[in-house]
Automatic annotation (TrEMBL):
<dbReference type="InterPro" id="IPR001647">
    <property type="entry name" value="HTH_TetR"/>
</dbReference>
<feature type="DNA-binding region" description="H-T-H motif">
    <location>
        <begin position="27"/>
        <end position="46"/>
    </location>
</feature>
<dbReference type="InterPro" id="IPR009057">
    <property type="entry name" value="Homeodomain-like_sf"/>
</dbReference>
<keyword id="KW-0238">DNA-binding</keyword>
<dbReference type="Pfam" id="PF00440">
    <property type="entry name" value="TetR_N"/>
</dbReference>
<keyword id="KW-0804">Transcription</keyword>
<keyword id="KW-0805">Transcription regulation</keyword>
<feature type="domain" description="HTH tetR-type">
    <location>
        <begin position="4"/>
        <end position="64"/>
    </location>
</feature>
<protein>
    <submittedName>
        <fullName>TetR family transcriptional regulator</fullName>
    </submittedName>
</protein>
<dbReference type="InterPro" id="IPR036271">
    <property type="entry name" value="Tet_transcr_reg_TetR-rel_C_sf"/>
</dbReference>
Length: 192
């Protein structure tokens, strides 16, 4: 098995274990067993558990961005529809049988307060999402401060959907987003 294959197996196993069971409870020995690699190889590729978690989160970040872009692109040419596609994407995700909330919020809740590396990775992911929302909002003629509010609606929907097992949280967030967008466009008609 190549180093790349071993790394991929470790990250796949880690992503599954951490998402299902949590970051804190999964040890390196359990991860080694699930990945089918030796403990020596695991530590050679990832010197610490934090290194594994950071790599898993980076991978999730790339997956999230690709899926979000696909949803936005599929929404068509209307900038408003592209912005609102974020909430449709969230609803589809919330309806997945294995949905257990946002991996980044989960990681921050478990480890972010005690580990600056995890906190940094999570903050960068959330900042990237806010920036993407700002770009989509700008394309729709919506001011940047409203984009931040739209991001908060999406983040709140993620947490609510996970805690309450309520995929409809995305529809409520979208309805609130539509109100914010329409009010913003009515207040700033020259931006539309």
């Amino acid at each position: 098995m190549t180093e790349t294959d071993a790394r991929e197996q470790i990250l796949t196993a880690a992503e599954d274990l951490y998402y299902r069971k949590g970051y804190a409870v999964v040890g390196m020995d359990e991860l080694r067993t699930a990945a089918g690699v030796s403990l020596r190889r695991l530590y050679a590729l990832f010197p610490s558990k934090i290194d594994v978690i950071a790599a898993v989160l980076q991978r999730r970040h790339e997956e999230w961005e690709a899926a979000l872009e696909a949803a936005v692109t599929a929404a068509g040419d209307s900038p408003r529809d592209r912005l609102l596609a974020v909430y449709a994407h969230l609803e589809r995700w919330f309806c997945d049988d294995d949905f257990r909330g946002c991996a980044f919020i989960n990681a921050f809740g478990e480890l972010g307060g005690n580990d600056p590396e995890i906190a940094r990775v999570v903050r960068e992911h959330k900042a990237a999402f806010q920036e993407r929302m700002a770009v989509l909002a700008d394309e729709a003629g919506v001011p940047r401060e409203i984009a931040f509010q739209l991001s908060i609606l999406a983040e709140g929907a993620q947490t609510t959907a996970a805690i309450a097992a309520a995929p409809h949280a995305a529809r409520h967030a979208r309805a609130a987003a539509e109100i914010l967008i329409d009010a913003s466009l009515a207040t700033h008609p020259s931006r539309a």
